[in-house]
Amino acid sequence: MALSENATIAAIREELGEAGRLRIELGIGDDAALWQPSRSDRSAISTDAFVDGVHFRRGSTALDRIGARAITASLSDLAAMGARPRLITVALGVPDDMTLDDIRSLYRGIARIANELGVAVAGGDCTASPVLSLAVTVIGEVRASHVKRRDGARLGDTIAVTGLLGASAAGLRALDDPRVLAEPLRKRAIDAYELARARVPEGRWLAASSHVRAMIDCSDGLGRDCARIATASGVGILLDRIPVAPEIAALARATREDAEELALAGGEDYELIVAIATPAFAHLRARFQRRFGRELIAVGRCDAQAGVRWWRSGIATPVDRYGWDHFEVGEMR
């Protein structure tokens, strides 16, 4: 029987029962769990696994970049909750062909991201493993009144993203086939994939606004991650714009593919997808531009029709399955 990510998570949640709810305000099913240490604050906790051959290729990506990328992906989950990261732990699986210098390089990348965001690497574990793997746990804190979950979107809300989409997907394709992009776009695309940035400052700033109703990080593709907001919030989402990064646009021209479809499905840009009360959107967008020097881009609207659709050429096409599922075979992230 083929597994799917959503079905697997649902089965785990069912089997855990009360063990998955003890003193937990928000458990399995969002970007991070929420624990209540006090009336006014919440701890946000998230864990991600990264395995050679599934999430990266050790032979084609420098070890410091593998370390940095693993930490970034985990911190992006806290950004989506509006949390400030505080602690990181890393459980490392080490294959027998890795040297001490290799491990130093890996942790050099981890330390760089941690230092940039003022996060402490508090420890972890090491074990022998057939392939290189990292299990990263991140712990952050957020005011209870600032927590943004997936289930807060309402009918009529504007759906926006914090940046262009598809550059990371173009970088992965360029690693697989150097011919699809010419320099300097090829280097820019690979950097976007290997050196993606978690939108932690943006997430904390957005979370402080009562007009922001829901957030999720765009790790698995705009279509699939919007579907998670829609399902959790009990709304539909109609997308009417796909903000295409120049790297994926150039790749699409070279390969005669559809740039918007590639950007829609790509994922791992780690931009934030945000549901915002529509009357407040223009003002919030202007403030975001002044604060971060980049646009908060409207891509659609919440409505009453189930699922996520993409309005294009006068037709609304379902796009819920555009994106990445961790149990689909034949793909590498």
UniProtKB/TrEMBL annotation:
Residues 29-142 form the PurM-like N-terminal domain. Gene3D superfamilies: PurM-like C-terminal domain, PurM-like, N-terminal domain. InterPro entries: PurM-like_C_dom (IPR010918), PurM-like_C_sf (IPR036676), PurM-like_N (IPR016188), PurM-like_N_sf (IPR036921), ThiL-like (IPR006283). One of its GO terms (molecular function) is thiamine-phosphate kinase activity. The keyword Transferase applies. SUPFAM superfamilies: PurM C-terminal domain-like, PurM N-terminal domain-like. CDD domains: ThiL. HAMAP family: TMP_kinase (MF_02128). This is Thiamine-monophosphate kinase. It comes from mine drainage metagenome.
